[in-house]
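Here we describe the complex-level prediction in full. Unlike the single-chain runs in Section 2.1, the two entities below were treated as one system.
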Amino acid sequence: MNGPQDVGGMMGFGPIVPEPEAVRFHADWEKRVLAVTLAASATGVWTIDAMRFSRESLPPAMYYGSSYYRIWLEALTNRLIAEGMVTAEEVAAGASREPARSVPRVLRAEAVSPALAAGTRYAREPSAPARFSVNEAVRMRVINPPTHTRLPRYVRGKVGTVERAHGVFVLPDTNAHGLGEDPQWLYTIRFSGTELWGVEADPTLSVSVDAWESYLEPVT
Amino acid sequence: MMFALTKIGALTARDDVGKGLPMNNDHGHNHHGHDHHDRGSALSETELRVRALETLLVAKGYVDPAALEAIIETYETKIGPRNGARVVARAWNDPAYRDWLLRDATAAIAALGFGGRQGEHMVAVENTEAQHNLVVCTLCSCYPWPVLGLPPAWYKSPAYRSRAVIDPRGVLAEFGVSLPADRQIRVWDSTAETRYFVIPQRPPSSEGLDEAALADLVTRDSMIGAGVARQPAAAS
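The structure predicted for the assembly as a whole is:
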């Protein structure tokens, strides 16, 4: 969706504020949000793509006015309610009033290290050869789905070059909405700065995105 | 400010945005109607909401409280940018390892004991005299956790995410990095589950240092491309 998350090329957000490497969190509640989000996601009720869609579905004014972990908190709360795991009344009360729904699994403490070390692999076995070749010119499709996509607005309609084929990966556009993994070839597509931003762009700039095959069309 | 609730009983809501770094980057300067004069044992609306949600999820049995502590401990003490610094130091010191890292970063990094969540599909890119690499995630906050830990607040901020792809030299200037005008700038927007990290240029005066000393030269920001490696004299 053309939501508040898609900020590439926007202006006016102010200076970047570096911070020391030793800073991990800015408040204790941020640790709790991180841990609760990871543990709740580990139930397997939703996918990482679904949680990203929950975050980008927040109203733009809220998204831009919130710290990142606050965005996580809002999105997690919405997702838990949408999945029927909690009710809004329970969230407000901070207490359980209804029976829990069944979830695929619960992450136990002893499983945390193995789970984090294993991660979740998104690569799948190819079932068809890649449609596009390295060094081939491709145009990014112009699409504006109201649903989740990882095709940023600033590259839509732009012509780039296939730099690398990574293999076949789960498609976020369907996986975010319970529509299956629809695994597709994933490519790194490189654009010149001038293609993206016009003749006044930095001539030394090039930018790449990683794009699934259905985001691309041949240049004829 | 989205949350109007500023007073909770006798407690004064602290400015959680100021502590949590707002995405509009005016932390430390915004007031949003919160009262800063009565801190005491104040709990912000955000803190209360987080506590309530955690309590609820534990009560429902969805979340094991001991697992929460294990997750926090992992990202506070075990997974951070010193992991990536070890990878870079090895690459600087061992050409065969460098080649492997550039060819198959996931495997090369795993050989040093790092991998897993948010680093399942790693790609290493190398800064040279010809090209400088900068990593961003314009759509969210994708970041190579196993080698760099959790992303710093600025990496997640719209200020960085918006400008990295259109004005990377301006971004680098804010980090005190100035590159030659003819240096090619390559920005990697992490839009998939591939995770990028940068092998910074090895400082010219670092010959003879062992890998531990080399790793001390490697900053987190240099592995994002927002900085360069320290000079040896500055590392001690």
